Amino acid sequence: MQLWVLFVIGLLCQVALGADVIVTTTLSDAIASAVDGDNIILTSGTNYNGTGNVNLALYSRTLAFITSDVETATIDCEHGNVSAFLVFPTTDLDLTTNVSFNGITFVNCLSAIYINTTAINDSCTVSVTKSAFLNNVNKNTGGGAIFVEGPTAVLLVESSSFSSNVGDLGGAILAQEYAIVSINNSVFENNNSTSSGGAVAVWYDATIVITYSTFTNNFAHEDGGAVDFYYLGDDSSHVSNSVFNGNRGNSLGGALSVWVGVVYVNSCQFNNNLAQWGGSLLSYTRGLAIIRGSQFTLNNAFSGGGAICSSDGYADLYDSIVSGNHANLGGGVAVFQTGIMNVYNSNITDNTAVQGGAIFVSDNSRFSVVYTNVTSNVASSGNGDSIYCEEDSSIFVNTSQVVLTSNNNTEQNGVYCDPFPEYTWCEFRVVNSGDWSEVCVQADPTPRKKGLKGWEVALIVVGVVLGALLIGFVVAYAISSRFEGPSFFKKLSPGETA
């Protein structure tokens, strides 16, 4: 079933058509007295806690939990190491589970809502609207606020907030094992992951669509300060019209980290994010990030890629602005370890780095740029205000479509090829009026031949001759000793000694 079809089904299931069941004693009593399709009404401003109000199992039920007035009702697990709701299908009889929460605040729970359909194939949709999740913790698995897992699990989040939640994977939400998640018009702030995905972790074939949402000051001890994508399924995930500000990943991707899978990023803003690699976004190990119409400003990477880094991954950047970012290598963007990055119709300006003020390309990586301005960038080392090329990398530039400038008058358009080590070959391909040339662009460009030097060839010849003599000696010795059968040529039986 297509992703959007599931979303529509989930939204339709939010419509409350049943009778109202007002909570007069406990939530457990109200659930027991309700029939599928009923609305369970929580009293606005009331705090529900203790036995009968937490750790509530919803097995193959269709119920709506709604607050009676504008002010939310609160479900408080009181740090009792329990969830507020456990949502599971229970049979293979094609029963449908549809649960919705509207106007409820969840605090101090172990994954406030826990959804699992891994053992059952029945449909299960949970909708959360105008609700809040505060100080929930799950360091065992992840998803401090919401844990969702399983091939028929659908989670729909609308106009809700997630603050100060903590999880192992996904400080606020963990989605995995083919789960489908939609997040719209929601806020994630100050969430913390002890592993990856400061706010949200999307793992093992799960799929997510994030729209019109804000991620602020979330933190991951490893990757993906805001959202971590890891081993995604065949369906791509999407992030659009969202803002990522002040998020931090200790290792990879201050805002987003993509490992193995496809993520589309459209019309987003990335500001003041921080990581070791990829201040805002990192694509790693067969991860593909396709970015359109987005802005990256004032992001920082301690090592490489102030805004964007591709390391053994792929990144395409269209119609975007990369400005005012900083890193040690590649203030704007960086490509490492056979990574590939393509930039189209964008502006890479006013970025700073020690090497490669705008762009750093290394480790057999590939970089191309078309219809783009690469201007006013600064490399403090004086090497590569615009582009720093290192270690057998290839850069493709159409000089009739790309503007390159440098603050260093000793460089040609701010492009620098590292001359060390000696085996390095920088393949800087420049397209101009249909002509291609292959040069290593430096202050005094001197292309190095790809062949070996004379003394290197001599050493190889000597090595081959000595090796042939040694092999000949061993073969001759073996033949002459064939009938004597010295012990070191025998296959010894277990326990036998030479």
Overview of this structure, please?
Among the domains are: 1-221, Pectate Lyase C-like (3 Solenoid); 464-489, no CATH class. It is mainly beta. The protein is 9% helix and 46% strand. The strands form three sheets. The protein has a 29-stranded mixed sheet that branches. The protein has a 14-stranded parallel sheet with strand order 3-6-9-12-16-20-24-28-31-34-38-42-46-50, with no helix packed on it. The radius of gyration is 29 Å and the shape is elongated.
Please describe the structure with a list of short key phrases separated by commas or semicolons.
498 residues; mainly beta; Pectate Lyase C-like; 14-stranded parallel sheet; 3 helices; elongated; disordered C terminus
